[in-house]
Amino acid sequence: MNVSRYISQKIEGSDSGSFTSSVTKIAIISIALGLAVMVVSFAILAGFRNEIQAKIFSFGAHLTVSKYDNNNSLEVEPINGPRLSQDLRHYGQVKSMQPFARKTAIIKTKDEVMGVVLKGIDEVNGPSPMRQNLQTGKFLSFPDTASSEDVMISRKMADKLRLKVGEKALFYFIQNPPRIRQFKVAGIYQTGLDEFDEVYVIGDIRQIRELNAWPDSLVGGYEVVLKDFRQLDPVSENLLGNLAYDLKLDKITDQYAQLFDWLQLLNRNVVIFLILIIFVATFNMVATIFIMILERTNMIGVLKALGATDNQIRRMFFFRGLNLTLKGMLWGNVVGLGFCAIQYFFHPIPLDPENYYMDRVPIFWDFNIILLINLAVFVTSQLAVMIPTYLIARIKPVVAIKFD
């Protein structure tokens, strides 16, 4: 029989109604709330990061390969699509690639005028990631015999231009000679990111080829998706060193640096917040064990007089602290994971898309992070338990037995 554990269980049963009982409940609640807040914080942070990255990647992928030039125009010089596509396929880190081309235009309706960028895409290499942003209507059709006259505009554009799904609008292209095309609004998309919603109209890449008099082999560039986004920097360096001298490679983290900087700021704020929570929970655990030792000073003196060693008594309070920690962690996981599940399935907490880029608080289930949080709380709590137990060695049996 483990004597230290046995006595610890007896102490727990005898604490009912005492001051120690109230303090232990506070310690359990502190651990539970701290763990629940950490689980929810990481789930929401990961949800924000994944939602925003998914929206960015649906427009720009991880890497963009295009012709090198000295101006900052959104319109780029054409490159040989089949040759570049063949070169990119040699890299094992490349998951998929999509050709694109861009052309500036002016949309004119009966009452409004708006400058936009027509981004031409195709689905030869698989479905476009833009499909996930479709809000109403349908995605572009890509007929085999001719270029599609369908376009997708953002919700902001549709509201400003007073366009609805199925209606047609004139697009004016400033070139020599000027061109005019009439396109039909097949669908309306929404990302919540002004960098896209206020600028881009999505159309068939063959329309841009016809406007620029390009053969079918020319494209504006390729958007490349990697198998592992965390390998973005080393893969981009390797790829850049093997591209032709007249091609450039743009990383998504450089193109939309302000958004990724915002995500990094969120990461730092959450880390600081979590450190403070762990500190408070640890302090409460230390205070709880101190109070237990002070209230049990007489008992400690008796146990020492009967031959108990300091380590045996120390393990007794260690098991008591372990019990409190496990109870707090159990309730913390129930509350934290329960809140995440309710938000994930029922979305009771909305957000303003104008400020947060999405219409509800996002939740991302990363069970590896949840396990690490639980492990961190467990380890720090047990270390906190050990600190006050060293006071036991200073308690003298003769003095303690007289303690009242």
UniProtKB/TrEMBL annotation:
Name by which UniProt lists this protein: ABC transporter permease
Gene Ontology cellular-component annotations: plasma membrane protein complex
KW Transmembrane helix (keyword) present: yes
Lipid bilayer topology: Multi-pass membrane protein
Annotated ranges, domain MacB-like periplasmic core: 26-236
Species name: Hymenobacter gummosus
Similarity comment: family membership: Belongs to the ABC-4 integral membrane protein family. LolC/E subfamily.
Subcellular location: Cell membrane
